[in-house]
Amino acid sequence: MTRVFGVEVADELKGIVREPAALFFSIMMPVGFFALFVSLFGSQPAGAVPAGTAMVATFGAYGVLAVTLMNPGIGVSRDRDRGWLRAKKVSPVPVGVTLAAKVTAALAYAVGLLVIMSILAEFNGTLVASVPQLLRVCVVLLLGALPFALLSLAVGFQARPNTTSAVLTAFLMASAVVSGLWMPLSILPPVFTVIAQFLPTYHLAQLALAQINGGAAMMHAVVLAGMTVITAAFAAVSYRHAKS
User: Which residue ranges make up each domain of the chain?
Assistant: First the structure.
């Protein structure tokens, strides 16, 4: 089963690169946005650290979500459109293995994005964080991405590929702006700060940021844990009622 899982992961890794839309929106766009924003605002103060360092956490959250929120759901929707669910019912490979491979492949690309963003911040001279801090940011973002990957799968089980892509893109872009993943909430209208408190994307970014600036983390972790339970149940129900 381990070998089968490895083959599935390798296939999913190739699939993301082969798909132009996924390659652009999930990898090239987050890196491009980060490079632009860190060059413009990276040297400005953001609490105890430069903005370029804080962006590794906040923009890193956006980059991780761009991969883990978009790709598993869109992949499942396309596979389902081609009769994937019917084939899996008679396949010796369990559905869970294939779904885990889709999420694992997305997480692998997410790690790459975080490494690239850290390197760009270092080259820009605005990275003030130790290796252990950066590793904690990486671990937090990868674990915190799980509920979003489950949400992605849930949408993919129910919607057609184009609809899945539209729904997930709209959620990602709106959340990125309102949660302060691109720009600090302090420079946005006050209403954004109020709305952000109710968005899991905000709590993911703040949990990652806490690994750098030492801020409070427990509440953000609890919110994400609760969302994981909810999205896991949502994904399970969505799969059970999915149309093959």
Answer: 2-240
pLDDT at 142: 93
Length of the chain: 244
**Coil vs helix vs strand at 73:** helix
Query: Residue 45: which H helix or E strand, with range?
Result: strand 45-46
Residue 75 has pLDDT above 90, yes or no: no
pTM of the model: 0.89
**Do the Cβ atoms of 113 and 64 come closer than 8 Å?**
yes
CA distance 60 to 209: 10
Asked if pLDDT for residue 21 goes beyond 70, the answer is: no
Question: Rounded to 5, what percent of the chain is helix, strand, coil?
Answer: 80, 0, 20
- Residue 36, C-beta contacts closer than 8 angstroms, at least 6 positions apart: none
Sign of the dihedral through C-alpha 127, 203, 165, 13: positive
